[in-house]
Every structure is written in structure tokens, then in C-alpha cells.
Amino acid sequence: MSKPATGPLAGLRIVEFVGLGPAPFAAMQFADMGADVVRIARPDATPKIPDPISGRGRPTVEADLKNPDQVEMVRKLCDGADALIEGFRPGVMERLGLGPDFLLERNPRLVYGRMTGWGQTGPMAACAGHDINYIAITGALAAIGPAGSPMPPLNLVGDFGGGAMFLVSGMLAALLSAQRTGAGQVVDAAICDGTIQLMTMAHDLASAGQWQPRREANLLDGGAPYYCAYECADGMHIAVGPIEPQFFELFRQAVGLDEATHALRADPRNWPTLKDKIAALIIKRPSTEWLALLEHSDACVSPVLDLHQAAQHPHLVARESFVQMDGLTQPAPAPRFSATPTEARPRPHDIMPLADAIRAWAQERPTSS
């Protein structure tokens, strides 16, 4: 159906129902790792081929899910699949005749991945929402941002961290189980559930009495003067993170802080004073000078880069952490595998006929090389 894959999931077949945000990102992860993924899109979808980056590596087929004949064709595609990804509200797939009970009866090994914000059950399950809502009820949003107001962390914590990545890990676990037992199952991946998991370290600190329920008052939320960003003379910022005493000592000496700084460092009550002292030093010199002095040391200092600058950073260039494809700079697949290397595959530009997708999957499965 597309260029043969060589990743660790080569030969795995997944049906993806086109949606937004975390579901296509999860499908991209599977495609990057070599899975054969087919996207099901509505004929009236705009644009026809969505997600120029997160939609990479897999063909799109159109299906009118209000047409019983085309629904049956989609069922046949699912009959030959190992897994399915959908991100609709609870009950939508059931109303379309594509719910898990029906499809698992036809294909008992199917792993049915469901990506939602609130989950398949609970009083909020049927409600609309977005990343900011899902992370708000988990304690994550309240912990992020300056002291005066919570700050949405893009949609990294909810959609992609608490959502897509937990969907991927859950589906992989279910696929392993299906290999052993022959029985598929439903994976209910709720962004709110995954975000709570991401907050495990904060709960650890709270249980030990080391977490204050306010922003900029804790070790990792910008409260500590040795774990935050500082503005330089050129308007750029540097990220400073020498948490351990030995690393802070390197930083202290390099920027010219006196030895009494250690006493300020040890007591959180002194953190605002120490932060002001460090800020007053860092603002005197441009970021280039600070980075030349500190970036390649154990002082734990890095430049704060935008998306364009990040793609040009020497470390990320050396690791080929970005790839050029379809005229776009894109994140390279991650993680990396020594024996079954992954590859970012181009996004097909043409709509694939549904019948062709079914015929292709009727053939012998490909194997990784």
C-alpha cells in the first residue's frame, strides 16, 4: 500500500478513523515504527488530506459512514486489522455500527483503541472539551505557570503526553496480550487519566511534604532559582537547571555568585532573593557569551530556542532529530531502534479507494527486513 516499512511494528495493521490532535499523533507513532496504517476519512472532510506532518506515513481512504454499503466495507477492513484507533465522543462508533462489541465479535483479536478527553464513562464523558479542560481537573494546570495565573502548557501535557502516548503504550500492551491469548480488547485512553499519571512525581513530592499548592513555589515549577529561565542582554533566554549541589557550584563560580549563595539556595524562603541576584547577573551579558561559557559543561545551562532555531541546534542536527520531507521540517521518529530502525515515510497525496485497501490487506502480510 506504501513503501515497505522496516520498523519494529512492520506487518502490524491498524485502521485509523481520522480525527484531531492526539489520535492522529498516536497513529503517526505507529506508522513511524513500521505499522501499516490506513486512515478512514469522510468524503466531505476539509482538507482532504489533513495533518501534513502528523498524518505522514499512511494512506487515506474515503468512506461515507452513513452509507450501509460503505460501512460494511470498513468492517471488512477492520476484519483484517490488528488494531483500530478512533477519537470520537463515546457512543458515536456504536451508532455507526462500528462499535467494539460488534467488531470484536467479527475479529476477536482486534485491539480497539479509544482516545477521548474525559474517557468512555463518568458524568463528563459526553461533554465537549479541550486540552485545557482535561488537565484543569487533574491538578496539572494549577501547577503550571507564573504565580499570578495558570498557564496552558500548549497541549503537550494533555493531548499528547497524557493522551496519545498513553494510547500508544496501552495499545502496545493489549497487542502483546492478544498475541499470547488470541483475545483483543478495548483500550480506553482518557486524557484526564493519563495526565494524572504524568503528575506522579508531584504526588510523590506532596506525600513527602515537599510540594506547595501554589505556582512558582516548588523545585520544578519555576520557584527554585536554579530551575528556571533567565533573560540575557540580547533579549534571548537561557534555561538554568543545576539542581544538584555539585552542578550548582559550577554554575555559581562561572557566573560570579559569592559562596554565601549556597545558604540562600538551601532554604526556599530565600529563593526569591537568589533569583533576583542571578537575574541581575545574567541580564548583563548576551546569551552567546553565557552559552559559550556554560552550555557544554555540567552547569546545566541551555538556550531557549523557538521551533526554527531548535532545528538548527548543533546537537539536534548531529542526531538528525529533524527530517526534511514533503518540503517540511518535521520531527524524526522517536525512540530509536538498533535492529529495526524506524523511518518517517511520506504522506500519500492521493485518496486511496477503499476497495483497494481491502484487497491489499487480503494479501499476505509483509514482514520486516
Automatic annotation (TrEMBL):
Enzyme class per UniProt: transferase
A Pfam short name: CoA_transf_3
Record keyword Cytoplasm present: no
UniProt-listed InterPro entries: CoA-transferase_III, CoA-Trfase_fam_III, CoA-Trfase_III_dom3_sf, CoA-Trfase_III_dom_1_sf
GO MF terms, alphabetically ordered: transferase activity
Documented EC number(s): 2.8.3.-
Transferase keyword on record: yes
Highest rank taxon of the organism: Bacteria
Keywords: Transferase
Region (Disordered): 330-349
Cross-referenced PANTHER family: ALPHA-METHYLACYL-COA RACEMASE, SUCCINYL-COA--D-CITRAMALATE COA-TRANSFERASE
Protein's recorded name: Crotonobetainyl-CoA:carnitine CoA-transferase
